[in-house]
């Protein structure tokens, strides 16, 4: 009679043992399962208690290293997403952010704005009253030292509001330069139709003169003292760009008599080289148009 191979017999025995073990687990009661899990937990606690300080520190270092690697990977992914962002998507995202900022400022009532500015001025006066002569000198020193940084900060805040004027893809959007010039000419048509008609007849397009007025906030049209007075009114107005259009409209209406009698070259030269005027009267006219 041929002998059985031991390997096959051993495999069959281990399978039978595994089947019995599974059957024992199936018939295991809830109490036995709880006891077994409790024993496993107790053994884990004992192992952790026996772990040396060095081993524990090594384990914590591994965890921190893993977290650091994960954080760096996430930063790399964010950087890659920013890199693949197209110029149009970036412009759209920045435009949305600027629009939200304008909406939040527009929702603030005049009374809330005045109250906020009054509180800021009051706190500034209290701080100045409490500071000593030595502190005042030190603050003056630091103010002069960081004047350039403060100026740049103010400049970037201003440019964040008018940046849409310089993005070609947004020229014809609601906040683009094309739409701003159209709103200006609509305002001129509304308040003085004859001037608007004269400019149309001579084919004097707004791009020839008011493009510079709007994008540079009139910085090349007036002497510096007058410009500072204009900017003082402009930046104090919560709807500053609407007021800017009112100032530009007032400038055109101010030249009404000359525009109505001049030919094309003379009117172009007049609008591109705005003459000296009484800036206070011009601003009063702009406020009148704003109403």
UniProtKB/TrEMBL annotation:
Pfam families: RabGAP-TBC, STPRs. Residues 1-238 form the Rab-GAP TBC domain. Residues 13-35, 44-57, 71-92, 102-116, 124-139 have a biased composition (Basic and acidic residues). SUPFAM superfamilies: Ypt/Rab-GAP domain of gyp1p. Keywords: GTPase activation. GO terms for molecular function: GTPase activator activity. GO terms for biological process: intracellular protein transport. InterPro entries: Rab-GAP-TBC_dom, Rab-GAP_TBC_sf, STPR. The keyword Cytoplasm does not apply. Residues 1-140 are annotated as: Disordered. The keyword Nucleotide-binding does not apply. This is TBC1 domain family member 13. It comes from Araneus ventricosus (Orbweaver spider).
